[in-house]
């Protein structure tokens, strides 16, 4: 008995076969391709984007999330440590916000479980935005344009900090960078990377780097001690997970950073003391692996690392709603 399939059924069947073929074509490697993120609530994403670029969430009126996590510069500020309210210098390097949704936790010490919890911290931190949550909410609740958008997304004009951080987190979920050349190679395109870059990956993998730098983000999924084979000499006073857990075993243990788009996120490490990729590869080889890479090996590894640069988020700068006469004005010198 012959069964005649409709054109729709044929299309579905072909799609299913193509999906299976794609899945089977992905190379079995410790690093896996990044998948695009599609939000089920575009209005929430758009609101979160405005809040991400909103300097009125800072006491000075000039600092926003984008100040330290500049989406035009790889999601960071390219400073050793960030500058906050009153030109205060922060203690750590600002990690990239790109692909941060793929991490096990947020901040170098992992003190925030997720993006929403993380978003609340910098707003009120005195060396960052220096804006008490109560005052930040006074500002937002005084702006009719924001009240309209929060009502559309959350069903209430009474804005809360949980609503603010939920919207920012939803926007940050979209900041993934798929389609890197290395991802194309993982999916079976042998011409996506050069033989030289592939040699760099083999050195990287064979050395043991993928024990920590794995998964979609090529990192971010574990906490590791900085200086396993040899002590790392740092001028930074921070002690990593120890400040959260109080366990001496966690001293100088930090979240493994993502290597996605790493050519954009200099300087490197929690203290920003490595200015170049070459320097960071050399240091990591010595203190983590007991490996002294040759100059040629370093160049090859760096060539591979640059294949991890994916498609950057293409954004239209949001137009923020105007303040009302009742909106508290910024105090840059407070």
List keywords for this structure.
Cytochrome Bc1 Complex, Chain D, domain 2, 334 residues, mainly alpha, 2 domains, globular, 37% helix, two-stranded antiparallel ribbon
How would you briefly describe this protein structure?
With 334 residues, the chain is an all-alpha fold. The chain contains twelve helices and two strands, in the order H-H-H-H-H-H-H-H-H-E-H-E-H-H.
Structural write-up:
The chain has 334 residues and is mainly α. The protein has 2 domains: 132 residues, Cytochrome Bc1 Complex, Chain D, domain 2 (Orthogonal Bundle), CATH 1.10.760; 126 residues, Orthogonal Bundle (Cytochrome Bc1 Complex, Chain D, domain 2). It is 37% helix and 2% strand. The protein has 12 helices and 2 strands. Strands 1-2 form a two-stranded antiparallel sheet. Helix 4 crosses helix 7 and helix 9 crosses helix 12. The N terminus is likely disordered.
